[in-house]
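=== RUN LOG ===
request id: a7f3
mode: sequence -> structure
chains: 1
length: 141
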Amino acid sequence: MEQRISLITLGVENLARARRFYEEGLGWRVGMAVEDEVVFFQLNGLILSLYARADLAKDAGVPDAGGGFAGISLAHNVRLEAEVDAVLNEAQRSGGRIVKPAAKAEWGGYSGYFADPDGHLWEVAHNPYFPIDDQGNAWLG
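=== RESULT ===
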């Protein structure tokens, strides 16, 4: 198996609400969508999709059991510390919830967390050890 992630799918309770959060709130451009079924956002070399949580569980053949911490977070790295605060503020204004305010991190960076309207955790971080190129790709320093 090649070392790659091609697509991340978030199971959401309300597809229209989730689409509004990412598209209108965060300003992301929809790359493709099937009305009332799935929304795709082209990221830098990766695709993020939004799909109804119950349908995603059914597709995977697992029960759609409960909520709480799913043991995963997504990360959005930025080039400067000030951008961490700006992104967290943008997420909050758009209907996200700040889970952990930005602060200096013990590993030498600066980061905080927000949850989208479905509770998916996003870390927003400035990591001086993972430079970001002009296309927005993070690299191991």
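=== NOTES ===
The mean pLDDT is 93.
The chain is about 25% helix and 30% strand.
=== END ===
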